Batch of 2 targets.
Target 1
Amino acid sequence: MNTLGSLSSASRPYPLALVLVLLYAALVVYASLYPFSGWRYQGVALWAFLFAPWPAHWTSFDVAANLLAYVPLGLLLTLAVARSGSARLAASVGLLLPCLLSLALESAQGLLVQHRVPSQVDWILNTVGAALGVGLALWLLRSRWPARWNAFRQTGLMPQNHGAPALLALWPLALVYPTSVPFGLGQVWYRLEGTLYAWAEGSFLQPWLPVPLPEPPLSPLTEAIVVALCVWAPLLLGYAVLRRVGQRLLFMLLALALVLGALLLSASLTWGPAHAWAWLTPSASLGLSFAVALAFLSLALGHRAAAVLSLLAWVLALTLLNRAPAEPYFAQSLQLWEWGRFIQLHGLTQWLGALWPFAALWVGLRLALRAAPRQVYNRRA
């Protein structure tokens, strides 16, 4: 049978979808209500925006952002619920819950007077995006892609992967936020230092804090090394959970294509499509070449060796990266994101880009300490 109601029982989607839908829903809430300040009740019903006149001015960016933001939510939610055995129930939940979530968030935005304007158009676009995600999920179920993923999990992935596939799936999204060095996620020290001095200003702790000394910028060779390490380390994390060399090679090519696309998207959103390749400096080109060469040489590494090398690469990259000062053009890029039309994406991508390498360190550590599979021998009587 190939009816709608029997799709899920045959395919049994992967349980990773449930984890991803919870994470993605939390990210949607964060992005919709950022910066969580300026709350004020204006004496108007929170749902009054549903009956207000339609906005006079729309932008293609707002339409695309509101439409596409809910596609993954509808997709992942449908796949997660479909494990119960009813694709009809999964489709209903995959559409209804995102619709209600969007309605609740648009209503809450009515309290963010200075930062958000609730709109019934945004709610409709969010719901349509969720519907597109539901349709895509149903097509995947009919095509038995979840069943193929389950088979791949059994034969292609190590049994104890500690969430590495989900983390690697977020790598391109983490790279959308501008970085001072291409692929240089995790440069948090200058922000932590500034926050610490701001908190201690005027208190008894201020005299005890060391005077910050200006750090010299990274040399071109050091920048190339940082780029190479920041690309090689996530690829090693993937190698640590993939069983076969062929699978590692395919993962490497796909991951490189996705992260390059993420940097092109980030530069296009920040400076315009004409400057999409502005980040590809000679240092970045040299670092990418190093990373590709190291990735090819590492294809045959053991799983534990790949995890350990990933840890060492991240430690060295983060040490070098956090010693570098933020360059002026980088600060200008952040201004465009923090106060321009990217304010909805700013909080989400900023935290993701800052914390992703440290999550990769934690996962890599667990993979390095993973117990070797026990060999079971048949004893003769």
Target 2
Amino acid sequence: MTLQNLRFPAEWEPQSAILLAWPHAGTDWAERLDEVEETYIAHVAAITRFQRVLVCVADDDVEAYARARLASNRIDMARVGFITLPYDDTWLRDTGPITLAGDGGFELLDFRFTGWGGKFEAGEDDLLVQRLHDAGTFLKSSLQSIDFALEGGAIETDGQGSLLTTWRCLRERHPGVAREELDRRLRGWLLQDRVLWLEHGYLQGDDTDAHVDTLARFAPGDAIVFQACDDPADPHHAELAAMAAEIAALRTTDGRPYRLFPLPWPEPILDGGRRLAASYANYLVINHAVLMPSYDDPADDAAAAVLAEAHPGREIVQVPCRALIWQNGSLHCISMQLPEGLI
């Protein structure tokens, strides 16, 4: 398939569905499965108010169980589809397809998934995109396999040729490759005009080596939403202040500063003394709505107000995510959008 005018669409462009993978006892969620299932149910309920969701399930029993749990919560099951295939874990942002859209079809980019640099077993997850494609899940699509470690959470596009990423993450994945070469490869594969590199920004409890989707996100109209920290006593303060200064210094392609939307800082969430990576930047944009992680924190509503301003015309829906950050990710991390027409 030869496609014309291929481009990497922004997340806020029209979608056909959100791709998820249901947590089960064979994943790392086993110890707290009941808690995380409640988050998934709330997430699917929110998505299906606006569009379809496609749920990966490990086997027929997992599908039957997931279907029953969702149906019992009065979810519109006509908007829920299932596909059976093996997976190691449920972080679909990093294991799902990165999709380029063109005239008359799509190109799915299947980068290597290495378990965030070999931290975790990833053999099944590395095959997920190929298996989805082979099963005929996607319409009018071709697959390009790329022997290069890259996770979807590490990159952010404005849909107009600018890519945002963090040097910390890409350097960890490819320590022997110069930045100029990484820049060239990313622009080539993702069809971008430029890469904006952030030197600063991290979250305690994050094992992705500073994925940009926990830190800073493009928004429509030359805007950037980012996680701020206003507590000078917090160990994140200096690093996130330095990141904020970097973002303020960025310029649009026509030389203007971006419109900036700093997100409030939630109170520390600890689990057995371990600080968890609670970030409001890890939100998901879908058709007509923004689904944001909530942490049962006084800052939740303030974060919702910021997102409403940054994404005007979209309903802001809070999804409880304290269960997710136990495994070091949040709402965006478990979700991958599929552009309109792909399924």
